[in-house]
């Protein structure tokens, strides 16, 4: 039961931070797809950094709970995969297949690069 609590608290924090970032960046009149890309890139980087740093805490008694809190709860909630999929679907419905493919390739590529960069920074 306590594992669910760690995931839930992390998810609450991640969702609220995502909301705040989206709200603040939305005031800049950026494209919705670009906002989602920024948030997902940040979450991917943070997850990579966290997972590289968590290795240093393996001996720590609560390392498993930290993993639940951050990797599943916080970063899982911070990223906006469902919004990303919705944008792809919406572009396909509008027959904007090239834009959908471009969004897919850019988002996945940047997400992987951001994750790897976070992982790399954490091991330095």
Task: Please describe what this structure looks like.
The protein has 5 helices and no strands. It has 124 residues and is mostly helical. α1 packs parallel to α3 (63-78). It is globular and about 50 Å long. The model has no long low-confidence stretch (mean pLDDT 88). This is Fluoride-specific ion channel FluC 2. It is a multi-pass membrane protein. The chain crosses the membrane at residues 1-21, 34-54, 66-86, 103-123.
Q: Unreliable stretches, pLDDT < 50, 5 or more residues?
A: none
Helix percent band: over 70%
Structural class by sheet pairing and helices: mainly alpha
The number of helices is 5
Q: Please report which band the strand proportion falls in: under 5%, 5-15%, 15-25%, 25-35%, 35-45% or over 45%.
A: under 5%
Tertiary shape: globular
Which radius of gyration do the C-alpha atoms yield?
16 Å
Work out the number of β strands: 0
N-end to C-end Cα span: 36 Å
Number of domains: 1
Average of per-residue pLDDT values = 88
Order of helices and strands: HHHHH
Major sheet details: none
Blueprint (SSEs and pairs):
Layout: H1 2-26, H2 32-54, H3 63-78, H4 81-93, H5 97-123
Helix pairs in contact: 1-2, 1-3, 2-3, 2-4, 2-5, 4-5
Summarize the structure.
By secondary structure, the protein is an all-alpha fold. The protein has helices at 2-26, 32-54, 63-78, 81-93, 97-123.
